[in-house]
Amino acid sequence: MFNHTIAAIATPLGPGGIGIIRISGPSAYAILKRLFVRQLRAKKKRTHFKSSSNDTFRSHMVYHGYIMGVDRETIIDEVLAIFMQGPKSFTREDVVEIQSHSGFIVLNRILSAIIDAGAGLAMPGEFTKRAFLNGRIDISQAEAVIDLINAPCETAAQMASHHLTGGIRDIVQTLTFKLNNLQAKCEAAIEFLETGEDRTLISDVSREVRNEILPGISKLIQRQKETAIFRKGLHLAIAGSPNVGKSSLLNRLVEREAAIVSDFPGTTRDVVREYISINGIPVVVCDTAGIHETSDPVECMGIEKSRNQIHHADIVLMVLDGTRDVNAFEEKLLTEIKEDKTIVVVNKDDVVDEGVIRGIEKRVAKYSWIRVSAKTGTRIDQLKSLIFKDIVHGQQGAGDTWAAPNLRQRKILEKTSAALAPLTGQGVSGQPIELVSERLKHSLQLIGEISGVDGREDLYDHIFNQFCVGK
Ligand SMILES: Nc1nc2c(c(=O)[nH]1)N(C=O)[C@@H](CNc1ccc(C(=O)N[C@@H](CCC(=O)O)C(=O)O)cc1)CN2
Ligand SMILES: Nc1nc2c(ncn2[C@@H]2O[C@H](COP(=O)(O)OP(=O)(O)OP(=O)(O)O)[C@@H](O)[C@H]2O)c(=O)[nH]1
Ligand SMILES: [Mg+2]
């Protein structure tokens, strides 16, 4: 437990119905008593506030009243206040929540009064960090809190809320339990068995690691790969020569006039970023400047950005103009993009010449490709299906894929898997039991980082730093 008390505004700053200010720590209760007055009473025609300094606040009860400045002269706002006595609180410490009117000034005035009364400003994520350090949640649950707040789609939110209630923690605990068991047996063997007698144990350990533990870990790693797209969304870049209809395609995909379209080549200069959902997958669509040879410095800057987008995208929609042949520049551009992340979109299908199309077809046959008209909307839905099927391979966030780890956890699992791998090889039967035991111990240490059970505060600061203040 900490001996200093922290406070922060827990809700977004700005006009809103209600805002919440949170206080956690040993002085939370005293601060509430000092700043809160219970009711407004008319006494000799003068408004009068009943001091609460002699009252007690019962835990988990809601009290109506007013917050005053530390001078106890000015009323700042009419509020509802809740005291939650530790350890029955989010941080396991004494917590006070004040629900005030939400406005930048009023929230900050209340926070100032609380600071004046002795609390310190909370750092980003400090409440959740306290919940972790005081043992209420593990690191995987703290990560789930961030993931839930930042979830770009429903599936991501479902995964996060699953982990918030200990989804990944429990799966990892089962694996840890098995490893622990094996390691304990090895330790006992070192103590009690003669050399040579421990061979059966080693082969038992080897079998269990090979048949149960490693497959369990691989399954988790695989699930992370399958669901990564739901966490970070899919990055789609629309690229091609000037005037082929890239911006028109963006507008079609997002179903609004997001980018300027014109007859002039070089209309789009900067990256235009929009968000859509394809079969529940959050997709970031970026329209880019047409790539061509130019000496115009501003255009060059745009083209540089286009190339950057192409490079970082998960999928590139390479747009071609269906009314003319593929030119040498476009052919070269195509070779610069990885084949498996390219979809060739032959646009202007409403005005094409079939002869020209056959020529284009020959050049792009090895790609996944489709004819569309951004102008009329022809085959735009098929293009969306193609994006979904070809590249995402139809993965759905259904069923137990919700129990997927995140990238940090996957990396830990990969390390654990690598540390265990030597136990499954041919050579293990000749190894001393001490070495087998050490390997198990090492893998236990590694996998333990998923939950962060030993509470190494500094180790996890990078996780809490991703939070907002007040969380
Ligand atoms: N007003 C408010 N809303 C909120 C939160 C909060 O802190 N305050 N939360 C913050 O993230 C989330 C809810 N999560 C919470 C998790 C645990 C406890 C808590 O007090 N747990 C105690 C007591 C449980 C009980 O009495 O049943 C415990 O686990 O010991 C509170 C909120 C979302 N909504
Ligand atoms: N007939 C027809 N014209 C189209 C189609 N798509 C786009 N165009 C026209 O092609 C011209 C260029 O369209 P844009 O969407 O601005 O092309 P762009 O690739 O974004 O061009 P830059 O931003 O200059 O690189 C406009 O006159 C559009 O109306 C289509 O499917 N059919
Ligand atoms: Mg454009």
UniProtKB/TrEMBL annotation:
Concerning Gene3D superfamilies, the annotation shows: P-loop containing nucleotide triphosphate hydrolases, Probable tRNA modification gtpase trme, domain 1, tRNA modification GTPase MnmE domain 2
Residues binding (6S)-5-formyl-5,6,7,8-tetrahydrofolate: R22, E97, R136, K471
The top EC class is hydrolase
Similarity annotation: Belongs to the TRAFAC class TrmE-Era-EngA-EngB-Septin-like GTPase superfamily. TrmE GTPase family.
Q: Which residues form the TrmE-type G domain?
A: 233-392
Gene Ontology biological-process entries: tRNA methylation; tRNA wobble uridine modification
| Cofactors required | K(+)
Q: Summarize subunit and interaction data from the UniProt record for this chain.
A: Homodimer. Heterotetramer of two MnmE and two MnmG subunits.
Any idea what this protein is called?
tRNA modification GTPase MnmE
Annotated residues for binding of Mg(2+): S247, T268
Q: Cofactor note from UniProt? A: Binds 1 potassium ion per subunit.
- The record lists the organism as Desulfosarcina alkanivorans
Function comment: Exhibits a very high intrinsic GTPase hydrolysis rate. Involved in the addition of a carboxymethylaminomethyl (cmnm) group at the wobble position (U34) of certain tRNAs, forming tRNA-cmnm(5)s(2)U34.
Read off the InterPro entries from this record. Answer: G_TrmE, GTP-bd, GTP-bd_TrmE_N, GTPase_MnmE, MnmE_dom2, MnmE_helical, P-loop_NTPase, Small_GTP-bd
Question: Which Gene Ontology molecular-function terms are recorded?
Answer: GTP binding; GTPase activity; identical protein binding; metal ion binding
Q: Name one GO cellular component term.
A: cytosol
Enumerate the HAMAP family for this protein: GTPase_MnmE
Top-rank lineage group of the source organism:
Bacteria
Q: Cite a single Pfam family from the UniProt record.
A: MnmE_helical
Keywords noted in UniProt: Cytoplasm, GTP-binding, Hydrolase, Magnesium, Metal-binding, Nucleotide-binding, Potassium, tRNA processing
